[in-house]
Amino acid sequence: MTAPPEGFRHLPGHFPPDAQASLLEAVRAVVARAPLYVPTLPRSGKEMSVRMTNCGALGWVTDAARGYRYQATHPVTGEPWPSIPGILLDLWAEVSGYPHPPEACLINFYSATAKMGQHQDRDETDFAAPVVSVSLGDDCLFRIGGTKRTDSTVSLRLRSGDVAVLGGESRLAFHGVDRIYPDTSTLLKNGGRINLTLRRVTKP
Ligand code: MD3
Ligand code: FE
After folding, report:
1. Is 199 a pocket residue for ligand 1 (Cβ < 6 Å)?
2. Does any domain span residue 1?
3. Does 94 fall in a domain?
4. Which cofactors (predicted)?
5. Segment 31-64, tens digit of pLDDT
6. Which of 4, 16, 65, 74 has a 20 to 30 A CA-CA distance from 41?
7. Half-sphere exposure of 183 (CA within 13 A, CB side)
8. Which ligand neighbours the alpha carbon of 165 most closely?
9. Sheet with 116-119, edge to edge strand ranges
């Protein structure tokens, strides 16, 4: 593919370094109350390489027994997810073009060797809303195709402070993270990459 699918918008450097630091502080506050956990794949129970948590009324979770789903509580602590930080609600209002707030913010943490295979995000019931993504920390190689797994793909590097908006046709596009580029950012003291995805789950 020569171009990303319709509805994909990449906003490089949307957040300047001071705002990235504020975002990181907000993420740390969420993780202090809702610790990163090891997600496992449906049926096989194989561990994903990414560590996850959420904030918002709903969070995306996965385990062997119950598979992919949204739920209101942390799978390990049983506590409700912390609320979505204001800076992320402001981002959604600014870039989503959707007149209702996000319900979920999935937080993915990638170590230097973590990756995410090609998949579609289709556990939501409202595909009219885009997904809004924020990258923090080390760069990654992101790859996105079309709505069929066999469609050709395009790769791009996502850097700390970048925002991506996945609306329109791109909302149901296959996508994944092929690799992390270690030591490409100094934002995280111990390296790695954080991705935040703001999502609408239910129809308003
Ligand atoms: C395209 N996250 O959390 S962010 C995910 O970098 C996910 O952690 C990746 O795929 C990450 O589901 C990619 C960019 C992104 C996020 C959501 C999408 C691209 C998307 C949803 C639909 C299509
Ligand atoms: Fe995804």
Report:
1. no
2. no
3. yes
4. Fe(2+)
5. 999 999 999 999 999 999 999 999 999 999 999 9
6. 4
7. 0
8. 1
9. 116-119, 175-181, 139-144, 154-158
The alpha carbon of 66 is separated from its chain's Cα centroid by a whole number of angstroms, namely: 21
**What would the mean pLDDT of 140-146 be, rounded to a whole number?**
98
Residue nearest to atom 11 of ligand 1 (CA): 195
The rounded Å distance from CA 27 to ligand 2 centre is 19
CATH number for the domain spanning 42: value is 2.60.120.590
Distance 50 CA to ligand 2 centre (A): 12
Whether 5 has a pLDDT exceeding 80, the answer reads: yes
Give domain status of residue 148, yes or no: yes
State if residue 53 touches ligand 1 by the CB under 6 angstroms criterion: no
Q: How far is CA 126 from CA 27, 80, 123, 130, in A?
A: 25, 22, 9, 9
**Closest-CA residue to 158 (of 50, 17, 14):** 14
Provide the residue range defining the domain that includes 121.
8-199
Give the number of the ligand closest to the Cα of residue 115.
1
Residue 204 belongs to some domain of the structure: no
Cα 136 from Cα 15, distance rounded (Å):
10
